[in-house]
Amino acid sequence: TCPLLLRVFTTNNGRHHRMDEFSRGNVPSSELQIYTWMDATLKELTSLVKEVYPEARKKGTHFNFAIVFTDLKRPGYRVKEIGSTMSGRKGTDDSMTLQSQKFQIGDYLDIAITPPNRAPPPSGRMRPY
């Protein structure tokens, strides 16, 4: 299997990038380029990000992963949250792979990093009631 170039964009405020930051050939400035495989797990990707950002190594740092992909119905991009990991803790999404989440070569990965002293913002999947 060939590796792929994964373009990863990170924030350290616990929120994903806005979709308009990916418009008309532009991308956010916080890009990491990682050579990896479709069977890479979220935990493996977390480790690679922590190599580049030492502050993300703190126990309790939360990583929320989303795939950013081209919207085929209208111009622009869409985002799909796929899971999360935490430094120093095992989680249910750790072994999730890019392939299992329908990642396509050419998509971007957006990772919202939340420091351990701040609670992550509620996920879009949570109900307010």
List the helices and strands and how they pair.
Elements: E1 4-11, E2 31-36, H1 42-52, E3 62-70, E4 77-86, E5 108-114
Parallel strand pairs: 1-5
Antiparallel strand pairs: 1-2, 3-4, 3-5
GO molecular function: transcription corepressor activity
Protein name: Histone deacetylase complex subunit SAP18
Keywords: Repressor, Transcription, Transcription regulation
Question: Which key features would you list for this structure?
Answer:
Ubiquitin-like (UB roll), disordered C terminus, 1 helix, globular, mainly beta, 31% strand, 129 residues, single chain
Q: Could you characterize the architecture of this molecule?
A:
InterPro entries: Hist_deAcase_cplx_SAP18, SAP18, SAP18_sf. This is Histone deacetylase complex subunit SAP18. Belongs to the SAP18 family. With 129 residues, the chain is mainly beta. The protein has a single domain, classed as ASAP complex, SAP18 subunit (Ubiquitin-like (UB roll)), CATH 3.10.20.550. The protein is built from one helix and five strands, in the order ββαβββ. It has one helix at 42-52, and strands spanning 4-11, 31-36, 62-70, 77-86, 108-114. It has a five-stranded mixed beta sheet. β3 (62-70) and β4 (77-86) form a beta hairpin.
